[in-house]
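Re-running Oxidoreductase to confirm reproducibility after the cluster update. Everything else is unchanged from the original entry.
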Amino acid sequence: MSPQNEEPKTLRVAIIGLSASAITSWASTAHLPNLLSPSGRTRFRIVALCNSSLSAAHAAVAAYHLDPLTTRAYGDPESLARDEEVDLVLVNTRVDKHLETALPSVKAGRDVFVEWPVARDQGEVEVLRQALRQSRAAGKKGRVLVGLQGRWAPPVVRIKELLREGKIGRLLSSRVEAYGGSRDREVLPVGLKYFAERRVGGNPITIGFGHVVDFVQSVVGDLTLESTHAHFQLQRPDVRIRGPAQDDKIVETITSDVPDLLSLHGFTNIPLSSLPPNERKNTSPATLSFTFRRGQPFPGTPSLIWTLHGTTGEIRLVAPAGISLQADAYAEPVTIHLHTFAKGDGPDAVEEVKWDWTVTQREVGVRARGVQSVLFAFGDAVLAGGHGGEQGKKGWEERGWVELDEAAERAGQIEGWLEGFKG
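Result of re-run:
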């Protein structure tokens, strides 16, 4: 085949956890649509699936209408890691399986995308970090990126732009009021029963709250350790488990050891990327106050209210239908309003600030759009030859994805806050 007739290069992708029978559907609704979208096909090609057994992998190939002649099936992560015709591995298993499913591919030097939370605890995160360091020391170029895609949710990006443009002057304080992490305050579906088991590592705090506190701090800066006061409480320890959707009955009641209420308060160091040029020599910290309660808010109260108060104005983001700006909080419009103090306190002083999805994001469902921003940024960098070198020296914002060491810092921060809670 002549060079002009060669097919464009694409990254060869393997998915771990795309199941035909999974109770949760993150792999099929957030990752798969991006790989199969028109824009995704110019960047990626699915070449393998890995599930809990070989038969399960074959069933998933059939269920999602993938080509059985070009999609290899694996029943264990070690076999997949030996496949040298895989460039990128997407890990979509339950949190307590992240380490065992990602580790072989990390050791083999593959690029690996691990969903958030990285692993069940900091000990497991450190095992992954050590494996990555050893792999790179051996001359392998694999990277590990982590699914903290909320940092690139369009409303979050728009708020950072408003700060950078000086729309509210210098940021003085920020307040977050959030309700969610699960659909109900004291009921879980049977497939999410593990949300009440802290040892698993995936629950309303590490996932629901974790994503929000990450994208908020990506804008206003990380809470400083010495200034932060964190309070956690478990107010509803008895959690009812609802059976499969077809009968919708409560099948048991269990005792949770995962907190369902928290508050944070402390100072943040505002990142330069969130400051207007004339404020970048000012190192004054801002205050962040954050409250989170699992389950539904008071009727009529939005699930997420985020306000940012500055010297000359104030920004307010409201998400009525959910806290997951990185996923599916968009059943009702997510709005941003700007109050300019110089215009007074009347209705004319407040304006709605528009934000929008990109053309490529509109190719897929809402749940997949956040993941797309990270996958496409990474894919484009690799295909352009920017996988390492100068690309590797860039920070997360310029790079377009969060790497393992950066995500480990966020995981350690949340685990540190939780250390004093005994359940």
